[in-house]
Amino acid sequence: MLKIEGISKRFGGLVAVNQVSLAVKEGEIFGLIGPNGAGKTTFFNMLTGIYKPNEGTIVFEQQQVQGVKPFRIAKLGISRTFQNIRLLKDESVLENVMVGMFGKTHTGLWSAILGLGSAKKEEELVKEESRKILELVGLAGLEDELAGSLSYGNQRRVEIARALVSKPKLLLLDEPTAGMNADETNEIGELIRKIRKNGTTVILIEHNVGWVMGLCDRIAVFDHGEKIADDEPEKIIANPAVIEAYIGKEDTEEVNKFAAN
Ligand SMILES: Nc1ncnc2c1ncn2[C@@H]1O[C@H](COP(=O)(O)OP(=O)(O)OP(=O)(O)O)[C@@H](O)[C@H]1O
Ligand SMILES: [Mg+2]
């Protein structure tokens, strides 16, 4: 579904992502791990058109998308959440989710402004779809609350709902469980499995190694902008280069903890 070959992103003299190649199959839950500053978010930013790679190609369903504008990539069916929650905190939960359909609706701006029938009807459809997605992510009943009044964990769910409402083929989650407790984290795992079952392929960035091992079909490890491993979870956990990069070879207690995961 997604085939990336040799993409790099440089910021001045800093090489944030260095010639990374990677392939994701339809229906996979694919994990991306690595230390802080390894280039994971930058990689997502290239996949979603926020950054144009300095070199390399990104092919999504037979189409080259490197350097393509974000809204066009969204239209092709790639959707994402952000590492830092980006909600309209003073708007309702429902409105925050409806925003995710912007760009996908067909009615023109003028009919929306003039309140013509087709725009009204379309808004109703978007509302209905947004409610369904809110139910899927476990937020039924909270539609009319202000997004900013929800718990941190639930705000992350709103972000996921907003990314899902356009029915993406590929969903990119940047640290979906950051700041969550163990129970909330496990619930997000269940939600991601449900999303995959509904036909969406998932790539997720995560720091919680134990959790990601149990969830993903395949995991790539980034370190200093390079992909140092790409394998099934059991093989990743046994890879010395990964342990060294991710934990630091000197701290044996940490290495043991990592291996125990
Ligand atoms: N717009 C930018 N301008 C300059 N440098 C940047 C920019 N975006 C990212 N970087 C740098 O690129 C490197 C990779 O950053 P990135 O955010 O991709 O890492 P990450 O793996 O997502 O880290 P974390 O786990 O902390 O989120 C870092 O050194 C970062 O400071
Ligand atoms: Mg990041």
Explain what the structure shows.
The chain has 261 residues and is an alpha/beta fold. It has 2 domains: 1-77 and 170-261, P-loop containing nucleotide triphosphate hydrolases (Rossmann fold), CATH 3.40.50.300; 87-167, no CATH class. Helices cover 40% and strands 23% of the residues. The chain contains 11 helices and 10 strands. The strands form 2 sheets. A 6-stranded mixed β-sheet has the order 6-7-8-3-9-10, sandwiched between helices. It has a 4-stranded antiparallel β-sheet with strand order 2-1-4-5, with helices on one face. Helix 7 (182-197) links the parallel strand 7 and strand 8 (201-205). Helix 5 (117-136) packs across helix 6. The longest helix has 20 residues, at 117-136. The radius of gyration is 19 Å and the shape is globular. It starts with a strand and ends with a helix. The structure holds adenosine-5'-triphosphate (ATP) and magnesium ion (MG). The site of adenosine-5'-triphosphate (ATP) has 12 residues, from strand 2 and helix 1. Magnesium ion binds next to helix 1.
Reported CATH architecture of the largest domain: 3-Layer(aba) Sandwich
**Shape by Cα distribution:** globular
Structural class: alpha/beta
Which small compounds were modeled alongside the protein?
Answer: adenosine-5'-triphosphate, magnesium ion
Main sheet attributes: strand count, strand direction, barrel closure: 6 strands, mixed
What Rg, in angstroms, do the CA atoms define?
19 Å
At the fourth CATH level, what is the homologous superfamily of the largest domain? P-loop containing nucleotide triphosphate hydrolases
Low-confidence stretches: none
Average pLDDT over all residues: 90
Percent of sequence in beta strands: 15-25%
How many separate structural domains?
2
Q: Count the DSSP helices.
A: 11
What gap, in angstroms, lies between the N and C termini? 30 Å
What oligomeric state do the depicted chains represent? single chain
Please give the number of β-strands: 10
Protein name: Amino acid ABC transporter ATP-binding protein
Organism: Neobacillus vireti LMG 21834
InterPro entries: AAA+_ATPase, ABC_AA/LPS_Transport, ABC_transporter-like_ATP-bd, ABC_transporter-like_CS, BCA_ABC_TP_C, P-loop_NTPase
Pfam families: ABC_tran, BCA_ABC_TP_C
